[in-house]
Amino acid sequence: xxxxxxxxxxxxxxxxxxxxxxxxxxxxxxxxxxxxxxxxxxxxxxxxxxxxxxxxxxxxxxxxxxxxxxxxxxxxxxxxxxxxxxxxxxxxxxxxxxxxxxxxxxxxxxxxxxxxxxxxxxxxx
Length: 125
Prior knowledge:
5 strands, about 20% strand, YdhG-like, DUF1801 domain-containing protein
């Protein structure tokens, strides 16, 4: 079993179901994306550049769906939040699968993929 699969299966509910659902949407929306296990969490890359990652922050009760170039996307996608005053990344916090607007999320994934492809560096700030 791949480390990323072990990561998902080791999560408690409802986090496991949320993460598996988000993973499925990402992989079906962007079939060319590369799923990797880095820094002990799942990342979704365009080529070698990270685009989005999934995390559960200690002391929080949600799955953090984090967009690496989120600062460039937040004006067009107000669902993105600047949690913890992060410079570059922005995220969607999901407490339940129903919290995800799949159509808007798919549009966000396409925009994030385009930004990642065009960007010279993954981490620019």
